[in-house]
Amino acid sequence: MDVLAPLKPAELFSAKGLVVVITGGGSGIGLAIASALYQNDAAKVYILGRRLNVLQDAIHKLGSSPSAPPKSSTSTLHAISCDVTDLSSVQVAVSQIESETGYVDVLINNAGVIGPRSGPEIYKAETIHQLRDAMVTGYDEWTPTLAINTQAVIGVSASFLPLLEAANTRRGYAPGKVTGTGNPRAHDKSKLKDIGADADDDRLAHIITVASVASHMRWVSAGLAYNASKSAALHLGKMMSTFLAEWGVRSNIVCPGPYPSEMTQGKPPTYGTGQIPQGRMGSVNDVAGLFLFLVGKGGAYVNGTTQVTDGGRTGVFPATY
Ligand SMILES: NC(=O)c1ccc[n+]([C@@H]2O[C@H](COP(=O)([O-])OP(=O)(O)OC[C@H]3O[C@@H](n4cnc5c(N)ncnc54)[C@H](OP(=O)(O)O)[C@@H]3O)[C@@H](O)[C@H]2O)c1
């Protein structure tokens, strides 16, 4: 380990040259991630969601902001209308990105919905019959909630695997399955120079899944379906890290506490220490700091982890973390 090597934050925590796909990138946390990557030299950021107008407005907003980089937003930011629960819709997005770019360095599974809000009803119940009814509040909404928050993590990740592998090949890694001990994936580092990457940049392609503090919470915040779907999303992110190891694709999970977004509209910006020790919702700095670390050169050795960004919330509620 050469401790005298130059260590520059702008190089360690940067999206420079990356092609990134963010599902649910038109609002809330996904838009904050897109902003951080766009402002920090990403080559292309594809934001996916069902509402094309929301995605296009988001691109306009980022591109016309004083913090926008000199490069035009329309050469970096791209909107693709896509329903993450529909494999054929996801494949249309994959095909578009394949023809425009040919590879994806980082896929961020961020799309999500809150689902049926059984939490308040459960804690309001005064009789066993009220509790019975509260537990099945919005019962029919479980299926779409699990489809978006959980199942789509696998559908979208699987669909993008060939483009994630193409990113590795572009960086000089041998493609395909590499098994066994004492047998690292072959890496032709001369390819890094060809693509303008640093010689010490050994990042492998990366899937990041946005789960939630709800993944760990025993307390029913929004609803039973939300916590269950997010717990499962987190576990799938860990399972992917294990079964994708032989394929050269990393997988990490981010668990946010409350952040401002469409999903949390109307929630208070400040909290007591018994709710969030930091006293507030998450901010764009909190998103940018974490994601630039995870996608940057300084995050290359991070794989199979859960990153909690919750101001300490998980520590003050009954939780499994
Ligand atoms: N904000 C928080 O406090 C918080 C806390 C913990 C975890 N999270 C997680 O963070 C992620 C982002 O949520 P957010 O809070 O930023 O909420 P948000 O503003 O509502 O964003 C969710 C995004 O997901 C997209 N989406 C939903 N269903 C989709 C589908 N079937 N196909 C494609 N896109 C879909 C939505 O766009 P369309 O409706 O246009 O499709 C929307 O842009 C979610 O996974 C959420 O569970 C949020």
Number of strands: 7
CATH fold descriptor: Rossmann fold
Shape designation: globular
Ligand types: NADP nicotinamide-adenine-dinucleotide phosphate
The CATH superfamily label reads: NAD(P)-binding Rossmann-like Domain
Annotation field: number of helices: 11
Just name the CATH architecture: 3-Layer(aba) Sandwich
What is the number of domains? Answer: 1
GO molecular function: oxidoreductase activity
Keywords: NADP, Oxidoreductase
Protein name: NAD(P)-binding protein
Family: Belongs to the short-chain dehydrogenases/reductases (SDR) family.
How would you describe this protein?
The chain is an alpha/beta fold and 321 residues long. It has one domain: 3-Layer(aba) Sandwich (Rossmann fold), CATH 3.40.50.720. The chain contains 11 helices and 7 strands. It has a 7-stranded parallel sheet with strand order 3-2-1-4-5-6-7, with helices on both faces. Helix 8 (142-170) runs parallel beside helix 10. The chain is globular, with a radius of gyration of 20 Å. The mean pLDDT is 97. Residues 23-24, 26-30, 49-51, 54, 82-85, 110-113, 148, 210, 212, 256, 258-259, 261-264 line the site of NADP nicotinamide-adenine-dinucleotide phosphate. The site of NADP nicotinamide-adenine-dinucleotide phosphate has 29 residues, from helix 2.
